[in-house]
Write a structure and sequence with these properties.
alpha+beta, five-stranded antiparallel β-sheet, four-stranded antiparallel β-sheet, about 20% strand, membrane, transmembrane helix, transmembrane
């Protein structure tokens, strides 16, 4: 059937259905003042209760932070001299726990004044390289793409080049004559999506052969395939310390998970009270950019760590919601009181008219 131009407008008509003809049944919500106030007060109570619970939960965690920027100042001077790049410098920091740290204990490193959120810094990486598809894909890694414009850098980019590389060992003084190393696990630190989706080693029987024809970043002491020779599952791009560092922080002060306690021998219930020491191999310089660094030991609860942010957010939201509810209730009561005399006068006027009609 041919449609002539005269009747062409008929071909553009929508189908005769309830949806296309906009004939679906509708429902318009009408909330009374009481329902609105009830919703606001209920939401405020919920947020306030959750905020208080989260704050109490965060306060119940135990945390100890030791800033070793100044304590290891001698090592900082040694490491920041380019001629001492191959010299190792260690420092020991004794401390004591007055209370037992029960349950799972986590060790973090914390940096102050390190901006991982700069645009060029965040973009300086190769996701194609990190998922193992092409180890020589360095196009987006400026300024750390090639070594002397010849050999591709793996892993390339500014993020990988600036990896935190201090070595931190925790020791426990069982008594005055016996000191043991606290067993710490260096795996299980990453998000599932990072370890199984965003980071993958190239497919090869020998990891060293997979990275053949590449070189390590300038600030690294060893290549990517030697990060953990003892555990193949924690080597190369799958190394937990590397993956944790590559997830950039939003603020200049941040902490990242470094180790967690292996609850065996003396530490089945956590870290007992007593004397400890951190033995730190100093590699990561911070004094050049006036930064600081710390090591943190802390426990967690069902709601997470010691951060008060979520609890404060809930509490503030609940307080604002209640303030808004009281304000709306006051406005509603004020308008209601103003309407009462008007309604009363109109009722009296109607009564007078009715009486006059009856009198006639």
């Amino acid at each position: 059937i041919w449609v002539t131009p005269k009747h062409c407008h008929l071909c553009r008509l929508p189908d005769n259905t309830a949806l296309k003809q906009q004939e679906l049944p509708t429902h318009r919500l009408h909330f009374s003042a009481k329902k609105v106030l009830f919703i606001f007060f209920a939401t405020g109570i919920f947020c306030l209760c959750m905020g208080i619970i989260l704050l109490l939960s965060a306060k119940s965690t135990q945390e100890i932070e030791i800033n070793y920027t100044k304590i290891c100042a001698n090592c900082a001077k040694v490491r920041e001299n380019a001629f001492n790049f191959d010299k190792e410098c260690t420092c020991s920091i004794p401390f004591s726990l007055t209370k037992k740290m029960k349950g799972n204990v986590y060790m973090y490193y914390k940096l102050y004044g390190f901006y991982q959120n700069l645009y060029r810094y965040v973009r300086s990486r190769s996701n194609r390289q990190l998922v193992g598809k092409d180890v020589k894909a360095v196009k987006s890694c400026a300024p750390f793409k090639m070594f002397h414009n010849e050999t591709p850098i793996v892993p390339c980019g500014a993020i990988a080049n600036s990896i935190f590389n201090d070595t931190i060992i925790l020791s426990y003084n069982v008594n005055s004559s016996l000191q043991i190393q606290v067993p710490m696990l260096k795996t299980g630190l990453t998000w599932w999506t990072d370890a199984y989706v965003k980071f993958q080693n190239p497919k090869a029987d020998n990891l060293a052969n997979a990275f053949k024809g590449t070189t390590k970043p300038p600030n690294w002491q060893k290549p990517i395939y030697e990060l953990d020779k003892e555990d193949p599952g924690n080597n190369g791009f799958l190394n937990d310390d590397f993956i944790v560092w590559m997830r950039t922080a939003a603020f200049p002060t941040f902490k990242k998970l470094y180790r967690h306690l292996n609850r065996t021998q003396h530490f089945t219930a956590g870290l007992p009270a007593g004397n400890y020491s951190f033995n730190i191999t100093y590699n990561f310089p911070v004094t050049r950019f006036h930064g600081k660094k710390s090591v943190v030991l802390c426990t967690t609860t069902w709601s997470g760590g010691s951060s008060l942010y979520i609890g404060i957010a809930y509490t503030v939201t609940g307080a604002i919601t209640w303030l808004a509810a009281f304000s709306m209730m006051a406005i509603h009561m004020g308008l209601k009181n103003k309407k009462m005399p008007i309604i009363h006068q109109s009722n009296e006027a109607l009564k007078e008219k009715a009486e006059n009609r009856n009198g006639q």
